TrEMBL record:
Its cofactor is Mg(2+). This is Shikimate kinase. Binds 1 Mg(2+) ion per subunit. The keyword Amino-acid biosynthesis applies. It comes from Viridibacillus soli. Substrate binds at D33, R57, G78, R134. PANTHER family: SHIKIMATE KINASE (PTHR21087), SHIKIMATE KINASE 1, CHLOROPLASTIC (PTHR21087:SF16).
Amino acid sequence: MRKVYLVGFMGSGKSAIGKRLSYYLKMPYYDMDQEIVRREKMTIPEIFEKYGEERFRQIETDFLRNFRDEFCIISTGGGVAMNPQNRKIMRKTGLVLFLDATFPDIWKRIHKDKNRPIVQRSTKQELEDLFYQRRKYYREATHITIRTEGRSLKQIVEYAAFQIKRLKGE
Ligand code: S3P
């Protein structure tokens, strides 16, 4: 087990938790979206607009396939766990953590976000439907589910670190 992947819906706290977990466990941290933006030299909305969502999904899979073999923490984009190939790669190369947040909490965090094309093009109801459709795939991808409701970032990080160490056999 070399990598720790954080999966979950947009706004479930993957980046915030990933950064803190990286500090706590002294493991390097990568944000998949940021890595893609850096490599493609375009923002996520630009990639969606110029090449379409399908191309973006291909870039995500290429990233997972080719990312360097290193002990690290990776926060994934909210759509990554939908693809069976991606789930397979993540489970084979690391430990997968699902940050299970509630829709009301997620909505509060994402509804004004201009950098998320799926939020931009969807109504609240559509996002809620997507949230429920996707949960099944996050669960399928994951080794550990962490419910975030009512927990502070610190509590989530400590719990995640405890589970990671336990599963690594430390
Ligand atoms: C997406 C989530 C985003 C980003 C893209 C598509 C999705 O990542 O990859 O906008 O399909 O849920 P975050 O989960 O970090 O917002």
